[in-house]
């Protein structure tokens, strides 16, 4: 059990989730000095320690109570849950937040020349994967009689190497599949990064720290999606201008020095302003249209 006074957070050391997880912690005000070869990093301004590990280890570290929090992909988390269920190990945890990065899907892909006619075409195949528990659950739920072949890496070369007939691997842009002459046919799991907490009560101090972190995480994610929009608009067309601005229920309208016809409009928008909308605003007589990123938000 984690009995240290400092909140322990597990983060992937090197990979797809590392940079964004660490950037998120920094964005919520946690100062970190990460040195390349060390497993642990101490925050210099909060009672927080980061454990930098392989992502495969993160669900187990949280479920065994070795760390308090962990950043992990839902694919890896669900796979480890299924694995621990089957071997009667505890698999309790709490999801604190679903995050806005690490988006990918676990899909079955076949070689381009394979004549795929639907799920029944998978019967009798050998399918290489790093996620055998998720794949076998999919087989069971869909009455597919196929065999999973566990590979920890280079899954996409398995069909060419004659090790398997098809694969089940993570897909984001599809570039890896394309480069290996494979075609995505079935999405079996959609995933994003999540922040999870171990089961059981945290000490009062640790819980208070987590309670402060979560609204800040929400603020960072919200800010990323939002824009601050400023423009000069003709007074006579103010309503039409407001109608064009996304999520602009309550814009600030300010007088402009030296102009009775125009006003300044400021608005925090829940989405960005597309070029097409900017062109329409211009056509209505708007000028000085600025779209700016927002760093932090608090409701
Ligand atoms: N192409 C992708 N785009 C977005 N997210 C991805 C992509 N590939 C993987 N992920 C997410 O990031 C997680 C980590 O992927 P990565 O490829 O870094 O893992 P890994 O090779 O298993 O690393 P490790 O050495 O830590 O075991 C995946 O489990 C998934 O949730
Ligand atoms: O659809 P794509 O955009 O091509 O992304 C998918 C690839 O990304 C991940 O691997 P990664 O590049 O992280 O390397 P790894 O397999 O060596 O971990 C994943 O395992 C796929 O191979
Ligand atoms: Mg891994």
From TrEMBL:
Residues of the signal sequence?
none
What is its EC class? Answer: transferase
Q: Which Gene3D superfamilies match?
A: 3.30.70.120, Periplasmic binding protein-like II
User: MF terms per GO, please?
Assistant: glycosyltransferase activity
InterPro entries referenced in this protein's UniProt entry, alphabetically: ATP-PRT_HisG_long, ATP_PRibTrfase_cat, ATP_PRibTrfase_CS, ATP_PRibTrfase_HisG, HisG_C, N-reg_PII-like_a/b, N-reg_PII/ATP_PRibTrfase_C
Record field: catalytic activity: 1-(5-phospho-beta-D-ribosyl)-ATP + diphosphate = 5-phospho-alpha-D-ribose 1-diphosphate + ATP
| Annotated Histidine biosynthesis HisG C-terminal domain residues | 223-296
Q: What is its main location?
A: cytoplasm
Q: Which residues cross the membrane?
A: none
Q: How is its activity regulated?
A: Feedback inhibited by histidine.
Record's SUPFAM superfamilies?
GlnB-like, Periplasmic binding protein-like II
List the keywords (alphabetical). Answer: Amino-acid biosynthesis, ATP-binding, Cytoplasm, Glycosyltransferase, Histidine biosynthesis, Magnesium, Metal-binding, Nucleotide-binding, Transferase
Listed cofactors: Mg(2+)
Which cell locations does it reside in?
A: Cytoplasm
Residues forming the ATP phosphoribosyltransferase catalytic domain are 54-218
Q: What Enzyme Commission number(s) apply to this enzyme? A: 2.4.2.17
Q: Does the keyword NAD apply?
A: no
Look up keyword Oxidoreductase and say if it applies.
Answer: no
Listed pathway(s): Amino-acid biosynthesis; L-histidine biosynthesis; L-histidine from 5-phospho-alpha-D-ribose 1-diphosphate: step 1/9
A Pfam family of the record is: HisG_C
> According to its UniProt entry, what is the function of this protein?
Catalyzes the condensation of ATP and 5-phosphoribose 1-diphosphate to form N'-(5'-phosphoribosyl)-ATP (PR-ATP). Has a crucial role in the pathway because the rate of histidine biosynthesis seems to be controlled primarily by regulation of HisG enzymatic activity.
Q: Which family does it belong to?
A: Belongs to the ATP phosphoribosyltransferase family. Long subfamily.
Protein name in the entry: ATP phosphoribosyltransferase
Please report the organism this UniProt entry assigns to the protein. Answer: Aliiglaciecola litoralis
